């Protein structure tokens, strides 16, 4: 019986091999030890930082056309949640015309940051703590053009799927971006528009420009964003970011990042109803003159091509609300 069972299992594993030849299993394990001091509490903890697992692949349909699939999940291995969380999950077609996608995906504006964010995903340090526009949305209808002399166009339409809020169109949220990559230079210009439906009498928009220069042993980046809130009597917020790193000792990297903007309650507030997950518009809900600053510095060491150890420090401050915190972290990243 054991022999029969073993043969059955072996057959089940071997039979799909040809069918799954183009499927790739991938993932990332990222854990940190972190200390956060906000003046009232000084807390140590161990956190999983967007650890993930996924499978992706394609099928050649002939005539230069391919079918694509990508299913990526956040692994809840430290926050007490059960199961898996959603990340980019989509199906699409790719050919000489470009790539068309349906599903859950980063918006073109989020894609437009390139490699600007030196402290991405970290709860204390991430770009999104201060500058809005880094969204991953469900119900995305997206198009990525072929590269033309280093220039790529990306566009996405997002239905709100909330008829009760008059968010019943195919393009209640629009995100567009032009990405240019040529040698050491990456530059982008991105635009988001938000239909808030009947919930708020406003149709805000966000414009964001990014430039990153990679000099081999060093990198420098700048980002500027401006929000048009479409609200009478309220000043429109602006945002600025600077980032960079220097390689040291062959496998080491010293990095730093400075972010500032006019915002409240941690930078990104007033979530747009009608989207799942909600879109971060960055609308000030209390004092639009509340200036937020976040400075981060860190060091990372590549232990191999797939494993990186890193340490860092972030200081966050809001000048009007007197909110401030200091965070130290040390962690390990392994990609597979």
Automatic annotation (TrEMBL):
Keyword set includes Magnesium: no
Membrane topology qualifier: Multi-pass membrane protein
Location, primary (coarse class): membrane
Record keywords, A-Z: Cell outer membrane, Ion transport, Membrane, Porin, Signal, Transmembrane, Transmembrane beta strand, Transport
Pfam families in alphabetical order: Porin_4
GO cellular component: cell outer membrane; pore complex
InterPro entries: Gram-neg_bact_OMP, Gram_neg_porin_domain, Porin_dom_sf, Porin_Gram-ve, Porin_Neis
GO biological process: monoatomic ion transmembrane transport
Domain Porin: 9-320
Keyword Signal appears in the UniProt entry: yes
Compartment list: Cell outer membrane
Top-level taxon: Bacteria
Signal peptide: 1-21
Description of how the protein assembles with itself and partners: Homotrimer.
Protein name as annotated: Outer membrane porin protein 32
Protein species of origin: Candidatus Thiodiazotropha endolucinida
């Amino acid at each position: 019986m054991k022999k029969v069972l073993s043969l059955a299992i072996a057959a089940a594993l071997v039979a799909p091999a040809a069918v799954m030849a183009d499927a790739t299993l991938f993932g990332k394990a990222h854990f940190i030890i972190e200390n956060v001091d906000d003046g009232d509490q000084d807390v140590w903890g161990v956190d999983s930082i967007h650890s993930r697992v996924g499978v992706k692949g394609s099928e050649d349909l002939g005539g230069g056309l391919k079918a694509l699939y990508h299913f990526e999940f956040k692994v809840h291995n430290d926050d007490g949640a059960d199961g898996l969380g959603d990340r980019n999950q989509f199906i699409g077609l790719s050919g000489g015309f470009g790539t068309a996608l349906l599903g859950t995906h980063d918006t073109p504006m989020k894609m437009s940051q390139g490699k600007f964010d030196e402290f991405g995903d970290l709860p204390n340090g991430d770009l999104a703590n201060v500058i809005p526009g880094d969204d991953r949305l469900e119900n995305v209808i997206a198009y990525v053009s072929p590269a033309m002399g280093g220039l790529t166009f990306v566009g996405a339409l997002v239905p709100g799927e909330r008829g009760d809020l008059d968010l019943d169109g195919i393009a209640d949220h629009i995100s567009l971006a032009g990405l240019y990559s040529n040698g050491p230079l990456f530059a982008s210009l991105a635009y988001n528009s938000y239909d808030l439906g009947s919930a708020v009498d406003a149709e805000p928009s966000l414009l964001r420009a990014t430039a990153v220069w990679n000099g081999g042993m060093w990198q420098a980046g700048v980002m500027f964003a401006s929000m048009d809130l479409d609200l009478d009597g309220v000043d429109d917020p602006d945002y600025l970011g600077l980032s960079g790193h220097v390689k040291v000792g062959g496998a080491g990297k010293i990095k730093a990042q400075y972010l500032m903007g006019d915002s409240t309650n941690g930078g990104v507030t007033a979530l747009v109803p009608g989207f799942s997950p909600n879109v971060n518009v960055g609308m000030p809900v209390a004092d639009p003159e509340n200036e937020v600053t976040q400075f981060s510095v860190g060091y990372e060491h590549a232990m191999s091509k797939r494993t990186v150890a890193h340490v860092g420090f972030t200081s966050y401050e809001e000048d009007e609300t007197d909110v401030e915190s200091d965070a130290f972290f040390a962690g390990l990243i392994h990609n597979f």
